[in-house]
UniProtKB/TrEMBL annotation:
Catalytic activity: L-glutamate + ATP = L-glutamyl 5-phosphate + ADP
Binding residues annotated for ATP, in chain numbering: 8, 168-169, 212-218
Molecular function per GO: glutamate 5-kinase activity
The protein's annotated pathway: Amino-acid biosynthesis; L-proline biosynthesis; L-glutamate 5-semialdehyde from L-glutamate: step 1/2
Family the entry assigns: Belongs to the glutamate 5-kinase family.
Classification of source organism: Bacteria, Bacillati, Cyanobacteriota, Cyanophyceae, Leptolyngbyales
Name of the protein in question: Glutamate 5-kinase
Organism: Stenomitos frigidus AS-A4
Amino acid sequence: MLQTLVVKIGTSSLTQPANGLLALATIATLVEVLSSLRQRGYRIVLVSSGAVGVGCARLGMTERPRTIALKQAVAAVGQGRLIRIYDDFFTSLQQPIAQVLLTRSDLVQRNSYLNVERTFQQLLQLGVIPIVNENDTVAVDELKFGDNDTLSALVANLVRADWLFLLTDVDRLYSADPRSDPDAQPISRISRIEQLKELQVKIGDRGSRWGTGGMTTKIAAAQIAVGAGVRTVITDGRHPRNLEKILQGEAIGTQFEPQPRPASARKRWIAHGLIPTGTLYLDDGAVKAIRNAGRSLLATGIVRVEGEFQSQEAVLLRDRSGLEIARGIVNYHSTELQQIKGQQSDAIATILGYPGAETVVHRDNLVLS
Ligand SMILES: Nc1ncnc2c1ncn2[C@@H]1O[C@H](COP(=O)(O)OP(=O)(O)O)[C@@H](O)[C@H]1O
Ligand SMILES: N[C@@H](CCC(=O)OP(=O)(O)O)C(=O)O
């Protein structure tokens, strides 16, 4: 079975820290490695940051733009240059590429999610390496991936990747930010995300000068990806040849073990395409019924409703302590749920004045976290 790899490279690896200009040797090596893996039959998606960083360098700007409009304008300058460099390099090795610019809203509507999925499948079948970035120039704040770590995890879920590589400017995850803590200990393997808490890993919230999310967004991305059945590796972008070694089983970087993959495409969309607009807090009985017995959520198990949402929107299901249990598509408006929470199903018609759906979230529309 051919393996699918999603490789995400951050601005900090694509550019030279001193002047923000492109790190050509790194890009060239990455292009060689990806082309060679492609030749050997791997299906490859490259998620590349750098539009804003490269745009700034092109325009002689010395710091990241602060206003949204300026950032969007700068990204439009940088994205073109970035893809041109990639196309020149990949073309030298006879590897066709495609530019895919996504916004978060492309994944929310089921039609457009399926459409994006089909486009990726087609590109991969054609032997093309899609080069993905957020469409920064048109993305609006409320509907943004916000960072390419998250984007790459959602793409890895979408293309059912086997591996997600997050290439950055540190060689792996440490117990604390190695830039500020000389005692930070390297971490090689995470078999369950909860281990990060047990190991008391401290995540510095600032990234490098041009990067966006620092390590926080990489951990969030790893969590999404492993939940979608994708083995995830955080490793140094300056040594792209390590990708081949990791695929051969060498313990380089920090590797996150995947969980079993959600079975259906629809469930993957519910889990990672939709954006939850509200939260339902559940009592212990409901948590058990959903988690252990694969049951639907009934109104009686809801203790609190947070947010405003329409019927058929996505909601988070949490236990009383706030721990996320599942995500799903809700059958009631939030104002209806405020009235029927905690009630037995046969009381719903009397309370609302009309018979509602039997379940608040049907098990077919529910994905465990
Ligand atoms: N626990 C940690 N382990 C490793 N790096 C960390 C940790 N906490 C914070 N960091 C920082 O995260 C940075 C990488 O994030 P960022 O600059 O956003 O990279 P990229 O541009 O590749 O997305 C590292 O340079 C490092 O200083
Ligand atoms: N879409 C933005 C990148 C956002 C981002 O996540 O950057 P980084 O932290 O360097 O991976 C750009 O191309 O500049």
